[in-house]
Specification:
Keywords: Monooxygenase, Oxidoreductase
Shape: globular
Strand order of the largest sheet: 6-5-11-12-13-10-14
InterPro entries: FAD-bd (IPR002938), FAD-dep_Monooxygenase_BioMet (IPR050493), FAD/NAD-bd_sf (IPR036188)
Order of helices and strands: EHEEHHEEEHEHEHEHEEEEHHEEEHHHH
Radius of gyration: 20 Å
Helix content: 25-40%
Structural class: alpha/beta
Number of helices: 13
Largest sheet: 7 strands, mixed
Protein name: 2-polyprenyl-6-methoxyphenol hydroxylase-like FAD-dependent oxidoreductase
Organism: Nonomuraea angiospora
């Protein structure tokens, strides 16, 4: 039996383990944290990512845990409507709506499909070369600061601060009249459904690297913005709010594979959160990697080249679109808003 090691037990790593096991591989997972971390708010799963999970037998669970996201607006800080997010267009073309799912729920759903005995936590990868020698396949799913990427792909591509701090939280028992995003100069505020009676909010704000703002500072940034934004932030509790500096990768990798090593998710193509596509792209990477290995069962190197050819162009297009959308939203205005938005949001 072919043996693979997956470094990282996030969305991409867990999905990779499930997909590889389904095609007959023996899989070990190494996670540097003391436990599998299930935290975060609500990624929006587009139809292609939903299909990827359904192909792993998780379609019914996905429908039970998610809520559809069908209508949303982009507004100015005073509440004036700029444009609609293209959710209806996505549903019309793909035949299914975007669905919102708590990241905690997604991780829990994936973990249940993995044999606990195959997950080793608290493991720091100090000798990646030993992994390459001991397994038929090494998958780096260890995030933007990937040890696997540094070891096998060199130091030319590295994390780059995107100039943004992303704040995120949820509110129980509150559903706004209108979901969507409000764009102001250098900052944006968004709200989406997460579950019945649960609203996900997020606020990417331009912040110098290393500057540590408080929740009160965030409230001050959005003081005077249209209702219910100030009320949402007033209800937020410090210990329940996530704050992360955002990094992407630069320059883009020339390949996501080398020998018997493959990168997936943020390790390969970390991107800004403007399109909310990080989790979706990791899911698509994982399923495509397994599909290529199934197509080339006796030739791992050829399978990985096929994976790279299929996934890298698509993922990099999403990285580019997300970067442009970050700049567009941060400008706080749109020229010909609907046409611009449609070009910037590929489906």
């Amino acid at each position: 039996m072919r043996r693979a090691v997956v470094v990282g037990a996030g969305v991409g790593g867990l999905t990779t383990a499930i997909a590889l096991r389904a095609i007959g591989w023996e899989v070990s997972i190494f996670e540097r944290w003391p436990r599998v971390v299930a935290e975060g708010t609500a990624p929006g799963l587009r139809p292609d990512a939903q299909a990827a999970l359904a192909g792993l037998g998780l379609g019914e669970q996905l429908r039970e845990r998610t809520v559809p996201y069908r209508h949303a607006q982009i507004r100015t800080p005073d509440g004036r409507r700029l444009a609609g997010l293209p959710l209806e267009r996505i549903e019309r073309r793909a035949g299914a709506p975007v669905r919102m799912l708590s990241r905690v729920s997604l991780i829990e759903m994936l973990v249940r499909q993995v044999d606990p005995a195959t997950i080793s936590t608290g493991v720091e990868i100090t000798d990646p070369a030993a992994l390459r020698a001991g397994y038929d396949l090494v998958v780096g799913a260890d995030g933007v600061r990937s040890a696997v990427r540094r070891a096998f792909f060199g130091a030319a591509t590295r994390p780059r601060y995107a100039g943004i701090v992303a704040w995120r939280g949820v509110i129980q028992g509150f559903e706004p009249q209108d979901y969507g995003e409000t764009w102001g100069r250098g900052q944006m505020f968004g709200m989406t459904p997460q579950a019945p009676g649960v609203t996900n909010w997020y606020a990417p704000v331009r912040t110098p690297e290393g500057v540590r703002e408080s929740l009160d500072d965030l409230r001050a940034r959005f003081a005077g913005w249209h209702d219910p934004i100030p009320r949402v932030l007033a209800a937020a509790e410090e210990d329940a709010v996530l704050r992360h500096e955002v990094y992407d990768l630069a320059p883009p990798l020339g390949s996501y594979v080398t020998g018997n090593v493959a990168l997936i998710g943020d390790a390969a193509h970390a991107m800004t959160p403007a399109l909310g596509q990080g989790a979706c792209q990791a899911l698509l990477d994982a399923v495509e990697l397994a599909a290529c290995l199934r197509t080339h069962p006796g030739d791992v190197a050829q399978a990985l080249l096929s994976y790279d050819a299929r996934r890298r162009p698509a993922a990099q297009r999403m990285v580019t679109a997300s970067s442009w959308m970050t700049r567009l939203a941060g400008a706080g205005r749109l020229a010909r808003p609907r046409d611009t938005l449609m070009r910037m949001l590929p489906i």
